[in-house]
Amino acid sequence: MAAWGRTRSKIVKTVLAGLLCSQGLFAGLSGIAKAADEPKVTLIGEEPVTAGATLKKYVWTSTRNKKKVTVNANVIAVDLTNPYVKLDVMYGAGNQFTKKQTVAGMAKESGAVAGINGDFFNTKAEGVPIGPQITDGKLLATPPYISGLYSFALTKDNKPVIDTFTFTGNITAADGASYPLGGINKTYYWLAGGKHSMADSLYMYTDAWGQINRANDGMTVPTEVLVQNDTVMQIADKSVIPMVPPKDGYILRASGKAAEFVRQHLKVGDPIAAHYEIVPTDPNKSYDVKNFKMMIGGHTILVDQGKPAAFSRDVSSLGGYVSRTGIGYSRDMKYAYLITVDNSGNSKGMSLKEFQTFMIKVGVWKGLNLDGGGSTTMVARPLGETGVKLANQTQYGTQRSVVNGLAVYSTAPRGEVKGFVIQGVPIVFLNEQTTFALKAYDEYYNPVDTANMPIQWSLSKPIGTFVEGKFVALQKGTSVITAVYGKAKQNFNIEVIGREQLAGLTIKAPQLMLSPGSSFKLQVVATTKKGQSRVVPPQSVQWEFVGFEGTMNGDTLTVDRLTGDEAGYIIARYDGYSTILTAPTGSVKMWADFDTKSYPVAFSGSPAETQGKVVVAAENPDVQPVNNVLSLSYDFTQGIGTKAAYADFGRVLIEGQPQGMKLKVFGDNSLNWLRAEFTDGKGALQRIDLAKAINWSGWKTVEVDLAALKLSYPLTLKRIYIANPEQGQDERAAAGTVMFDDIAFTYKGKLPVLPKNQMTLTVNQKTVTVNGKKATIEQAPVIVNGYTLVPIRFVVEAMGGEIKWNEKTRNVTIRRGGHLVDMWINQADVVVDGKTVTSGAAPTIMNNRTMVPLRLISENFGWKVLWDAKTRKITLQ
Residue 165 is inside which H or E element, if any? Predict the structure, then answer.
């Protein structure tokens, strides 16, 4: 979206470029490396949204700086020849022009089944688009007098049009004098040469303009005229008329020379005439714009005749690899393509040039760029659902309120039930309880209510209990869930998996440091041999803790007490399949809670125009007991360039060698950058990210792994601050307040040092030595099919490990430090630190002793093995 500020020098230089959404956080076009010549576009899935509209999901694979990158992209293909689908412009909150709304909110309120965000807009003004807008044949806004801005429209015959348009119009007084109209329902902007759009201009505002304020940014003095039924009803000289324009008329806003025209030629009670139209910029072209079904504005053209087009405007402000939104149509003009690409997580966004190439590869013959970056949003109604859901990953994890969007509507009648969608998980764990939902759709792919449908459910194999979609897994195996109603039938394959199907098991946790009373969220993720991954539900996991005592409540571990001085070990098991996580012990030292412990703090800002305040005060004076917090307020509305608001602590030395920092932050959802500034032991300034974007509201605990930054100690904390980088400032709030509480540093204990034992064994001999001392074992090492087998219990215990035997499952579990091995008698598959590996020789039993391949345990425990072929002696170190 646009960042329309008042700093004229910058705006004049860039005209619209400085006004439009930068779509990037830091990168400019100069920082874009050349992508691979032939990027690959892969269609990974598609699903009907409604009759005539299909959501297609793509993955773009390319190379940047010799590194492979992937980008997720979404395309809604709309068949413009299908009578049961309609493409139009949605807008506003409560269907009210000038009131911004999220794409999902607009779609819900207008009944759309899919949509994307639309035109650029001035973030500091009323919520109206920069370009033109026609919705359902009604003109809501006219084009600005800015060159190179393209628009997308549909003719009365549903033919797509992508071109540049301008506006012509005038107001004629009763005495025959006339004055040109600058536009209809427009907010202020800057023209080429630095002229303010409202200077000496006359603008019309219709009942679509839902606000009393009309483009009053303080740069011009308004004179307003109320017109009803083509008659002048009121004139407010050098003032405004405090009302929303009426349905039977409009309000004119005049300034400068236009205001003089009003004073000289308009009188209350006189008739008045308005004539205006939208016309193509190229006078050699002709469009019946008055009968356009819809029209939406955008920015530069991207594709023309199936080829990358020269940019029609300066795109320096649209640089970087960011989220993108676009619209285009096919060569035969039968399809319109609504397109988004993501810059989020593993999806790395696109440059404009890459976006051009992608659009061409998915079928665009002619296309243009819409608002991107943090505004990029696509919603679509999943098959069988009644409402839309987010179809892409937004750049900041939240949906931004925007001024309008391109919407897909279904006009189909109710049809016969065509099919079902069974929603549920394909892999289930033992003891898991899960529900399978059923959604129905008709022949036009529109949802059908299943509440009163006598649906017949069945399960092909009784691997659990199943009643009306509710399933409890009782035994391992596969089955097929079937739902039937009339001619509609849908199957869903389900598998209750055991350890035999697993390829890996992982404990996912935040930065852990065990201390009494600390709590952590733990997730156990299972990966099958087929490549499927799922979080194992808490009721299906068995936990074991070594070095501490803890309590699991669902997926939350609370440390009750430490039983050792060093690390603790967290072991998770599912169906005998184990994984281990090493967690160091340590302590948390409060640095500032602002109640009992605090430091002097002062505000500073950059540049000098930045205003703000920092204070230690009660979060809520009316709540007892009072909780003091550090409050940092900022105002970035003045000045240019990157801006920052600092809470300066001077220079406070941090005790010891902290491995982590944690603090509570009350976010304002501003998307600004939160950082801390330290001086390290070498005197170097270290700027550390606390949050790349403050994308939350309310309190949240923020943790930073200082150890991963490899800092030099000791550390001195200089300040905590909020930054708003120059590029993409329109993406972030210009003013707000963030609060801080309970700033603490974490200190880790030492990891355990494992014993460095040494033992010697000889093939077919029962005499062994451990650390130079002789001992006798009941079963000597042997060689079977080229593999040396050793008695596992004696070897592991002698080398400082622990071993457990489960007679029921004939399972051996070995742990040495943070390494864990599970093996089963006569089975070659072995689980090592949560991953399945296949041993060349399976464990076996000889003389009532479990024998395992020496290579298996030595390689996975990091033991050094020396072999003397002459004496057949094995030395383990």
Answer: strand 160-172
Classify residue 30 as exposed, middle or buried by CB count within 10 Å of its CB (0-12, 13-18, 19+): exposed
CA distances (Å), 225 to each of 179, 199, 259, in order? 14, 17, 10
* φ, ψ for residue 209, nearest 5 deg: -75, 105
Round to whole Å and give the CA distance between 245 and 202: 15
- Indicate the burial class of 327 (C-beta count within 10 angstroms; 0-12, 13-18, 19 or more): buried
Residues 6+ apart with CB under 8 A from 624: none
Cβ atoms of 763 and 782 closer than 8 Å: yes
Residue 419 to residue 425: CA distance in whole angstroms: 19
Tokens of residue 112, six digits: 């759309």
Q: What angle do CA 186, 191, 196 make, to 5 degrees?
A: 70
Confirm if 89 and 139 have CB atoms less than 8 A apart: no
Specify the pTM: 0.77
DSSP tag of 123: T
- C-alpha–C-alpha distance, residues 553 and 523, integer Å: 12
Cα dihedral 385, 388, 394, 396 sign: negative
Q: How many CB atoms lie within 10 A of CB 71?
A: 26
- Rg of the Cα trace of the chain? 34
**How far is residue 122's CA from residue 730's CA, in Å, rounded to a whole number?**
9
Confidence of residue 21 (pLDDT cuts 50, 70, 90): very low
Highest average pLDDT, of 217-231, 424-438, 837-851, comes from 217-231
Residues 367, 337 contacting (CB under 8 angstroms):
yes
For residue 625, is the peptide bond before it cis, meaning its omega torsion is within 30 degrees of 0?
yes
Residue 358 CA, distance from chain mean position:
21
Question: What is the 3 state secondary structure string of 777-814?
Answer: CCCCCEEECCEEEEEHHHHHHHCCCEEEEECCCCEEEE
Residue 811 · residue 824 · CB < 8 Å: yes
Cα–Cα dist 217/122, whole Å: 12
Rounded to whole angstroms, the Cα distance separating 121 from 186 reads 11
Cα distance between residue 830 and residue 544, in whole Å: 20
Compute the Cα dihedral for 546, 551, 552, 556 and give only its sign: negative
Taking the C-alpha atoms of residue 599 and residue 14, their distance in angstroms, rounded to an integer, is 45
d(CA 17, CA 318): 8
**How far is residue 231's CA from residue 174's CA, in Å, rounded to a whole number?**
10
pLDDT at 670 over 90: yes
Provide the pLDDT for residue 121: 93
DSSP 107: H
The number of C-alpha atoms within 13 Å of 399 and in the hemisphere containing its C-beta is 21
In 3D, which of 132, 127, 157 has the Cα closest to residue 142?
Answer: 132
Pairing state of beta strands 433-435 and 470-473?
antiparallel
Q: Is 659 helix (H, G, I), strand (E, B) or coil?
A: coil
Q: Using CA atoms in the order 429, 436, 50, 448, what is the torsion angle rounded to 10 degrees?
A: 180
Range 649-683 burial, b when 16+ CB lie within 10 A, else e: beebebeebbbbbbbbbbbbebbbbbbbbbbbeee
Give the whole-angstrom CA distance, residue 558 versus residue 552: 6
- Three-class DSSP category at 289: helix
| Coil/strand/helix, residue 466 | strand
pLDDT tens column, 248-286: 999 999 999 999 999 999 999 999 999 999 999 999 999
CA atoms within 13 A on the CB side of 490: 19
Nearest to 238 by CA among 257, 259, 219: 259
The residue assigned the tokens 């606390």 is: 690
Q: How far apart are CA 672 and CA 668, in angstroms?
A: 9
| Calpha distance 272→276 (Å, rounded) | 14
